[in-house]
């Protein structure tokens, strides 16, 4: 049987398929529906210092082969997480990645420092698609120097794997990937949701209370795949591919373009067993193709064209 | 307990113009469903539509589970095309049930339009609990009313084509003027505007009232945080929102703010 | 019957639904299938100075609710266009918008100058999603000053309506819209395709010969709608909405968020009659809603939230 | 002339394991189709799949048009679910036909796998033109062969389970070694590798040879430029590529470079 596990620093993941932040709760909601230990890891809902109520309804709108959300990072806050959720997560046989959201660099540091001392938190994923109150609510994630700064400060605070989750809503995502690599990140997650919106024709109101929201699901897979490819060509640290992954074939596409692992997001809402099924599918595929390690698929796409010319003459 | 079931459709009927009754076989769902709970159904094995569709568990008959629906868009259109023998991917039973037990004698069921869906199941449970039941059923017009397994049905239609003319809440109010009801509890389901009126009525007359809500849902199982309903502040801890899918769909009307 | 037409400068369009560049050929391919005069206008395939063969196969890949293309701006060149296509287009009762692509600012100027003298060319749409050879093939469209420069130079060369077609593959598309407004553009078209890719699992090769291509179709509609809304909030010149528009409802969404007109693209491949059908649907909708002009729908979305906060807390 | 037709399916048969024969009624298409032309079918009224699917016009029978297909993915799966009475959105007839007329006596039809699809129609036209016809049909194994309306059929299967073992091009070569054919013209359709071998064979023996190509198509009507095939340089003007949908699908093998 082909090797499935992979490592970030000295932290081992059972396999290369994780549940994406905000699409798998805190891992306990579906424990009766799926054996979460069959996942490579669980990325928690984004955690902020204080609990967040989130945005007013309506928070969800369906779109062709996808969905929009404006949850507003509703979460129980890092203290409640430690008290109520971590005891359950700690005893799981899968890797726990705490995802952190914040409205100031200081808040990122505070949440991470507190979690860093907690047994059961194996790694960190930093969600920079958050409004910077200092900058009047403009997203940290679209400011390369800000993302570099956040990475550098957090790097100084932890020896656990530090994963920066990048937003696709920028011109050259590879610049951001290089910046966080230089600042000491162990990996990058690509991508978070794309900005989108939908209007209710009958009421003539935006479907989401926040007007725009984040687009996810199969519809964005081709965009995510191109972003992952661009980043994988630009940096040496591992890339975790995210965006519309719903089937084994989807996951294979991401590995082939250079993702070392993948996260499944919106598909969890339709089928919470998709992650483990894809993980086992990858192992079976590797065996069938005579590979001793699923990792041999990473970057195995057969192409000699590098990224620079790719924007040409669409 | 909630689980993912691949079930087989046993029948599909258009019981009234545009109103469909789908039966599927699932011993587990049939035996574990409580009144007010729902199932989340995958209407396509592709991505059109992408998300599941939630439907109240309308009635249980042996190992058969019934849902009642009308065609709204792509998902319900596909569901209406299912035929006996087709398989269906069903997640359920989900959500919190109505308070069918407890300290009340008479259940006043108030349904608007498709809001009737959860009440046949509720009625059968109320029967076991030996509660009195009066059912108030409102619809846009007669053709939408189909004789359900409801006890003491009273009908109201916007156009008066069947039963009383006017809203179902007015019908309820008139009924209570003319009848002596001991220890009542209201159970409501229907369009938000109707639930709002019912909630106001119940609180004005401080009557116990439970409402079953329909909000947009992505997952139905507490993963996405996509289905909030605002709580009456202070109430039940300081959280501003409750999740319709896991903390509902049935709520005490005094606990929530309909928007 | 509600008014359907609208004007750019002194050029009148029959209605607010045009056929998008590259998705309707030169207007003559489908003359037997659809009455093109029922369109508000026809935007030609991008025209360059010399004929272009385009990219090697494979140029097309289907994706969930969309498609990728890497046609490579295959076109007959501006001279053949004038000789072979313009005589037919000239006698149509619909407005002809010549779309121009180029690999240098000079080429843009040359093609436009030549077409400006041609009777039958009513307006120009400039495709800036093209590689700038001077910049090693990097797209003009992602460089704001370059787009401003192109606009200014072309503005000096024509009195006909000048429409700049913007790429969505940038962080803040509204900056680009403001730049071209300042430089004298009469309108902006939003959006061109998003960069995406797909991999063939069996061959492990990219599905497109150019690895990445342009994503279009219903899948991108929510993204396009958000970009159109962002731009409509930022500029005073008319915005032409493009991206996944396939139905009357789609077109209404774009008008409501601020598009003065729309273009239908990929749907033409599935149903070349979609454009006229949507145009007539808009007129019927306006009548049913007691409007005297379809234009009353432009920007009629019922919302008091302005764009700045829209990127917050996805 | 090509037009968009909403037609009604008159029959759907699985004529061989995994091989489907769909008949629909369309007087216009039936009466105007030339051999080698195709129709572009919308397999879903939603966006899954988004694009139409091209199929060769396999045979015409009165007002009935036949297409022959196997299940490859989402679109053909949906098509295989169509039943008599279902409606279908069909664009066609499209493309350039085979050269069924002209200066040749014997038509050598060479089909690989699903490449047989266009040849029943071609055969009937060749018949009218009073041409000799010999048909060489290759498949992966016997179960895929279904008796078509082809004249003088010779079979080859990879596993020898029916007819000769080996490729259909080898079969053709052997036939030509042992038979005297006057003024032949080859008509080929099938997988690219087979077309390549056929093209090499024809050019080596400088025989006239027309190939029907299958390339990915977005529109099928010349709008998208998505279906190029490389021309032999210099040939037919200086354009590097031809469009399979409007300048093909039938090409002279010496004019194009298969990739
Ligand atoms: C707990 C619960 C129980 C329900 N029970 C029933 C029932 O018993 N019978 C019945 O006919 N309908 C019921 N509904 C509503 C039903 O889910 C919607 O009518 C259905 O999802 C519409 O899907 P569609 O694809 O046909 O329509 P579309 O308009 O295409 O759906 C588009 C999107 O809107 C959402 N949506 C549309 N209408 C509703 C709605 N009223 N409530 C929630 N989401 C909606 C869909 O989930 C989807 O995401 C229930 C909803 C909920 C939340
Ligand atoms: C001119 C022409 C005539 C054809 N005639 C026939 C026929 O008579 N019988 C038959 O069975 N098949 C025929 N094909 C192939 C047929 O169109 C494909 O098998 C079909 O499109 C597959 O669609 P799908 O959704 O089932 O598969 P998918 O793999 O889901 O299709 C995905 C994408 O690939 C494209 N595609 C996949 N395979 C092919 C292919 N071989 N050729 C072209 N595009 C492809 C589809 O159009 C779609 O865009 C023909 C193709 C062309 C171009
Ligand atoms: C409802 C919802 C909530 C999400 N919440 C978060 C979050 O809290 N933090 C985060 O980093 N990403 C969040 N995401 C983004 C996902 O983790 C993922 O990056 C994105 O959805 C793309 O993957 P997908 O197409 O597989 O869903 C959320 C996505 C959805 C749909
Ligand atoms: C096959 C194809 C070719 C295109 N060619 C051009 C082009 O030559 N010039 C241009 O400005 N846009 C071109 N586009 C972009 C479209 O005009 C449109 O902006 C984009 O497809 C989004 O709209 P849609 O989702 O409705 O297709 C092309 C799109 C497709 C799908
Ligand atoms: S629907 Fe996802 S949490 Fe309620
Ligand atoms: S398929 Fe569109 S041009 Fe041939």
Largest sheet of chain B: 7 strands, antiparallel
| Number of H/I helices of chain B | 6
Largest sheet of chain A: 8 strands, parallel, barrel
Arrangement of strands in the largest sheet of chain B: 4-3-7-1-2-6-5
Task: Report the mean per-residue pLDDT of chain A as an integer.
Answer: 95
Q: Low-confidence spans of chain A: pLDDT under 50, at least 5 residues?
A: 308-314
The span between the termini of chain A is 42 Å
- What's the alpha carbon Rg of chain A, rounded to whole Å? 18 Å
Structural class call of chain B reads: alpha/beta
In short:
By secondary structure, chain A is α/β, with parallel strands linked by helices. In chain A, 29% of the residues lie in helices and 20% in strands. An 8-stranded parallel β-barrel of chain A has the order 3-4-7-8-11-12-17-18, surrounded by 6 helices. Chain A has a 4-stranded antiparallel sheet with strand order 5-6-16-13, with no helix packed on it.
Describe the structure.
- Helices cover 29% and strands 20% of the residues of chain A.
- Chain A has 314 residues and is α/β, with parallel strands linked by helices.
- In chain A, the strands form five sheets. In chain A, strands 3-4-7-8-11-12-17-18 form an eight-stranded parallel barrel, surrounded by six helices. A four-stranded antiparallel sheet of chain A has the order 5-6-16-13, with no helix packed on it. A two-stranded antiparallel sheet of chain A has the order 1-2.
- In chain A, a hairpin with a 2-residue loop joins strand 5 and strand 6.
- The model of chain A is unreliable at 308-314 (pLDDT under 50).
- Chain B is an alpha/beta fold and 259 residues long.
- Chain B has helices at 27-32, 74-80, 119-128, 168-178, 192-204, 244-247; strands at residues 3-16, 19-25, 38-42, 53-56, 59-61, 64-70, 87-94, 106-112, 132-139, 153-157, 164-165, 184-189, 208-212, 228-231, 241-243, 250-252, 256-257.
- Chain B has a seven-stranded antiparallel sheet. A seven-stranded mixed sheet of chain B has the order 11-10-9-8-12-13-16, with helices on both faces.
- In chain B, strand 8 (106-112), helix 3 (119-128) and strand 9 form a beta-alpha-beta unit.
- At the A-C interface, strand 6, strand 10, strand 13, strand 15 and strand 16 of A face strand 6, strand 10, strand 13, strand 15 and strand 16 of C.
- The structure holds flavin-adenine dinucleotide (2 copies), flavin mononucleotide (FMN) (2 copies) and FE2/S2 (inorganic) cluster (2 copies).
């Amino acid at each position: 049987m082909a090797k499935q596990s992979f490592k970030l620093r000295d932290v081992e993941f059972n396999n290369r398929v994780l549940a994406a932040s905000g699409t798998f709760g805190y891992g306990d909601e579906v424990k009766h529906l799926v054996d979460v230990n069959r996942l490579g890891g669980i990325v928690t809902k984004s955690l902020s210092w204080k609990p967040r109520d989130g945005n007013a309804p309506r928070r969800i709108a369906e779109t062709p082969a996808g969905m929009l959300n404006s949850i507003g990072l509703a979460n129980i806050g890092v203290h409640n997480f430690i008290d109520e959720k971590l005891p359950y997560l700690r005893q799981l046989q899968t890797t726990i990645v705490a995802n952190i959201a914040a409205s100031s660099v200081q808040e990122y540091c505070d949440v991470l420092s507190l979690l860093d001392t907690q047994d059961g938190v194996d790694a960190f994923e930093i969600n920079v698609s958050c409004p910077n109150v200092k900058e009047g609510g403009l997203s940290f994630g679209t400011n390369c120097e800000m993302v570099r700064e956040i990475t550098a400060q957090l790097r100084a605070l932890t020896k656990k794997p530090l994963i920066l989750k990048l937003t696709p809503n920028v011109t050259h995502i590879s610049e951001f990937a290089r910046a966080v690599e230089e600042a000491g990140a162990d990996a990058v997650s690509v991508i978070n949701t794309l900005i989108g919106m939908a209007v209710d024709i009958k009421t003539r109101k935006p479907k989401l209370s926040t007007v725009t929201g984040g687009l996810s699901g199969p519809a964005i897979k081709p965009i995510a795949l191109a972003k992952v490819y661009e980043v994988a060509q630009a940096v040496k640290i591992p890339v975790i591919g995210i965006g519309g992954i719903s089937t084994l074939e989807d996951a294979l596409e991401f590995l082939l373009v250079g993702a070392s692992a993948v996260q499944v997001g919106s598909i969890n809402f339709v089928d919470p067993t998709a992650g483990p099924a894809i993980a086992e599918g990858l192992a079976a595929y590797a065996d069938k193709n005579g590979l001793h390690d699923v990792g041999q698929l990473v970057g195995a796409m057969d192409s000699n064209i590098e990224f620079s010319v790719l924007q040409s003459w669409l | 307990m909630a689980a993912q079931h691949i079930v087989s459709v046993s029948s599909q009927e258009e019981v009234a113009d545009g109103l469909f009754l789908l039966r599927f076989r699932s011993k587990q769902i049939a035996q574990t469903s409580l009144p007010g709970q729902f199932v989340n159904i995958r209407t396509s094995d592709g991505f059109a539509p992408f998300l599941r569709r939630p439907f109240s568990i309308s009635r249980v008959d042996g190992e058969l589970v019934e849902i009642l629906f009308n065609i709204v868009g792509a998902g319900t259109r596909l569901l209406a095309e299912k035929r006996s023998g087709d398989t269906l991917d069903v997640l359920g039973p989900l959500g919190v049930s109505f308070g069918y037990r407890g300290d009340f004698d008479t259940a006043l069921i108030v349904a608007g339009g498709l809001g009737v869906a959860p009440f046949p199941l509720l009625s059968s449970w109320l029967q076991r609990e030996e509660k009195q039941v009066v059912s108030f059923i409102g619809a846009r017009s007669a053709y939408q009313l189909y004789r359900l397994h409801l006890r003491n049905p009273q009908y109201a239609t916007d156009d008066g084509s069947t039963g009383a003319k006017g809203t179902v809440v007015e019908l309820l109010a008139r009924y209570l003027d003319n009848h002596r009801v001991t220890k009542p509890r209201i159970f409501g389901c229907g369009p938000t505007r109707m639930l709002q009126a019912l909630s106001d009525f119940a609180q004005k007359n401080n009557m116990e009232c439970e409402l079953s809500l329909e909000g947009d849902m992505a997952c139905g199982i507490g993963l996405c945080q996509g289905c909030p309903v605002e709580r009456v502040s202070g109430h039940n801890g300081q959280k501003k929102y409750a999740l319709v899918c896991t903390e509902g769909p049935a709520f005490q009307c005094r606990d929530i703010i309909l928007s």
